[in-house]
Each structure stands twice: as structure tokens, then as C-alpha cells.
Amino acid sequence: MPREITAYSNPLIKRVRQLRDKRHRREEGLFLAEGLRILTEARETGRLPQYLFFARDSAAHPLVTALIADVEAAGGEAIETSPDILSKLSGKDNPQAVVGVFAEFARTLGSLDRTRAAIWLVAERLRDPGNLGTILRTGDAVGAGGLILIGACVDPFSVEAVRASMGALFTVPIVQCDWADFIAWLRAGPGQLVGLSLDTDTDYRAADYAAPTFLLTGNEAQGMPDDYAEACDLLVKIPMLGKADSLNAAVATAVMAYEVLGHRRG
């Protein structure tokens, strides 16, 4: 049976609000996700929040009802609260109907089966949470096996990245590792590492992609380091016909992912 919390001073409300800060997320091993669509995606993958906050007016919605039942059956807690408190938790003036507090989850390189998918996404020092979330959505759309984050990337469990992923955080496996470990793992089995570069004459549409293809996206501002480019099995470029010399990192990843998908289908 859900309990009701309407006071800003409630200890649980204070604790959950702090999860918007990376340090507190790391200490607690918890993160926030908001919105009925995202929480329903999580539920469908078998992940349920430890705490589910919902507005009174949304309680009768069948998806909210299902979430409440499943959370309580799994030993979590459903909490009815006000839109104002939901706004405080999410940091948005127009809060979603539900906010969930989930346990962080992570995979290791060793847990990945590279043969389960023809496309894998790799991002190096990605700094923008919106880009990370969008790349996760692209990964979900093309059936990528996972997203491998190299080096000092933005936290995939930040409120902004989770929001931008639109639920793909729960459907696309994520691994965080350093470059040396990634290369050692990659070379231990099949896999073609493909990077985007301006220093090549190979058009991305003319290249031959071998499965599984690992698409490497460099840092938004600096691109990929020279030694990373040298480690690639294939460098390709996307033609730039205007004055801009490059695409946004997430857009470039999407263009490449769909090109590889088309290559597979062809």
C-alpha cells in the first residue's frame, strides 16, 4: 500500500534530491529516472525502482497502476506525493507523473558477447549528457549490442543523460573502461574498429564493414587522439559540403550506425 509524503523536509525527499549530484549517486549507488515512458521501458526489461514517486492525479493511469503493483511486489516502495515535490526531485518546473530511484547497474567487458550483435558503439571522452543519451537511443534503434564508454566520459546515470536516453539506458548495455583494456578485449576476438576521421579519403558509404563493427566516436571538441585513430582497422569520413568541418558527435554516430545497418541488410 503506497504511503504519502507531502513535506519537503522529509528525510527521504532530501536524500533523493541529492541524487542529482554525481558524488551522492556514487555514494548511494542509486540514480533518478523520470517519466512514465522511461519507467515503463525499465519495467519491460525487468528493472524496477527501489522507490517510485507518483502524483495523486496519475495513480489511476493503468501504466502507473502496473508500476505500483510491480514495485511493491518486488519489495520496493511506492510513494504518493505532490507535483511540487516531484518538481523538486526532477529539477523540472513541469515534472513528469512519476519519478523512480533505481540501483545503478554496470557491465564489464568480459560480460559482453560480441557475437550477439553486428553493431557496437564506442565513445571516447564523451562530455555532453545529451549526446550520450542520444547515442544510447541510436544504439537501441539499430539493435546495437551495447555502448562502451572509454575514459572520462559523462556519467550515464546523470539525470540529463537518463532523460535524453528516453529509456534506452535500460535497453542498451553500457560498459565503462579505459582504452588499454578495451583494445586488449577487442583484439582477443572478432571485431572491426571503425573511426571517423578527416584524414582519410575513404567515404563512409564506400567502405566495407565487417561484423561485428565497433563504431568509435571521439570527444566532441577534440575528436579522437592520433593513437586511437592508428588503432582503428578502418577510418572513414562523412562528406562535409558546407562550411562546418564536422557533425555533432551524436549525429555522426547515428549516420554511421545506419550506414553499417544498411550494409548488413544489403
What does this structure look like?
- It is a single chain.
- By secondary structure, the chain is of the alpha/beta class.
- It has helices at 11-17, 22-28, 36-44, 62-73, 83-90, 129-142, 159-165, 179-187, 226-231, 249-265, and strands at residues 3-4, 30-34, 51-55, 77-81, 98-103, 119-124, 147-150, 174-177, 192-196, 213-217, 234-236.
- The strands form two sheets. The chain has a six-stranded parallel β-sheet with strand order 8-7-6-10-9-11, with helices on both faces. Strands 1-4-3-5-2 form a five-stranded mixed β-sheet.
- Strand 7, helix 7 and strand 8 (174-177) form a beta-alpha-beta unit.
- It is elongated and about 60 Å long.
- The N and C termini lie far apart (53 Å).
- The model has no long low-confidence stretch (mean pLDDT 93).
CATH architecture of the largest domain: 3-Layer(aba) Sandwich
Report the principal-axis shape.
elongated
Low-confidence stretches: none
Counted up, domains total: 2
How much helicity do the residues have?
25-40%
Main traits of this protein?
266 residues; 19% strand; alpha/beta; 11 strands; five-stranded mixed sheet; 60s Ribosomal Protein L30, Chain: A; 36% helix; Alpha/beta knot
Question: How are the SSEs placed, and which strands pair?
Answer:
Layout: E1 3-4, H1 11-17, H2 22-28, E2 30-34, H3 36-44, E3 51-55, H4 62-73, E4 77-81, H5 83-90, E5 98-103, E6 119-124, H6 129-142, E7 147-150, H7 159-165, E8 174-177, H8 179-187, E9 192-196, E10 213-217, H9 226-231, E11 234-236, H10 249-265
Parallel strand pairs: 1-4, 3-4, 6-7, 6-10, 7-8, 9-10, 9-11
Antiparallel strand pairs: 2-5, 3-5
Helix pairs in contact: 3-4, 6-7, 6-10
